Amino acid sequence: MVDGDPLHSLRFRDSAARIAALPQEERGELDFLVGEVVRLGAAANPATPREDLDDVARTAMERAGVAELAARSVLSLSGGERQRVLIARTLAQRTRYLLLDEPTNHLDLRHQSDLVRTIRGTTTERPGVLMALHDLNLAAALCDRVVVVDAGRIVADAPPHEALHPETVERVYGVRPLLITRPDTGAPHLLFPITREDPS
Asked: What is the pLDDT of residues 101-115, one digit of tens each?
């Protein structure tokens, strides 16, 4: 359901005006320029005037940190660069909701941090960002609500400090973390035990 309407009942143009999706993997083999790919995201939303498409795409590329790649072929990009371009395309769609599947795929630590700030910045513009994440600490730092799923079944649905309780994490992942509070942000943070093999 999206705003009370069944998603399957919406025409493509209507769903594209409400939801922008970033898949976990997308291997486009057409030789588009980065600027063209991001502009396609802007054009997907029928509410964006055609005369504004270039400006919308440019703003999205700046927010995703790929403005300097605008004239490059997407086929020439590294995995991390391509992921940032796809994030820019998603932002350019300017929808009410974002659906992101493992958005930090291929991103190094710096760009993961940049992505967190970018997504946090979009929450003032739209009511909802839904992400699938395997990085529990990223979920704890970024999300207002965490839904933990195990074998297709919801086992927790709560704020991060409740949903990521050590007992829940151990039940789902088979390892029990120490749950602490980050002194800089106040967000919950999980410390996982690391066992070293005896070198002898």
From this structure: 998 888 888 888 888
Write down the pTM of the prediction: 0.85
Tokens 């976990």 belong to: 24
Question: What span, in angstroms and rounded, lies between the C-alpha atoms of 42 and 124?
Answer: 19
Q: Which of 127, 128, 182 has the alpha carbon at shortest distance from 160?
A: 182
